[in-house]
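Protocol step 4 of 5: obtain the predicted structure for the target chain.
Materials: sequence only (see below). No template structures provided, no constraints applied. The aim of this step is simply to have a reference model before the mutagenesis design in step 5. Sequence pasted as it appears in the construct record:
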Amino acid sequence: MCISLYLKSVFKKLDFYLSNKQITSLLYLQDQDHHRLADVVFLQTNNQQVIGMFIDGVNPFFTSYLPDQRDDFNLFATYEKLSIQSVPYIFCIEKVYSFHHRLYHEHLAIYVSNKQEKQSILILFLQDECYIKTDISYEQCKEIILQNIKHTSKDELCCYHRDIVSNDWIEITD
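Step 4 output (structure tokens):
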């Protein structure tokens, strides 16, 4: 099967930002009124770097910087002050899955886990929210995506994973 340029671009980002990273914390941003920003989330790594994801539309944006280092998501255009809420969550990313709509160029979710899927993070990209769920299996992940994204049926949901042996992105067919 031929992988589109769009998917190749997504996979390069996922490889760069997520492959073989040691996660230490989930970082949530709060505005000046201490309300959590729903459209952005950061993962902190063991070397104090971050992986930021921001959703505004159908595809997420990524960064390696917190807003006070370099505001790649242009958050300070909307918020006067931002603070960080850190939630410890330690595991090594050994599996990366990427969920897409089969008919549209729409990145629906990222699922990362350790080898046994005992520790995992699902980041579901809703129109203007990064929905986060931890400690779920791959099977539970698919159910959550279909429950939360109403315009996507099971037949339209497409999932790829990074194969450890071939080092390629492989479509999972159920």
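Step 4 remarks: The CA atoms of residues 29 and 165 lie 37 Å apart. The chain has a mean pLDDT of 92.
Proceed to step 5.
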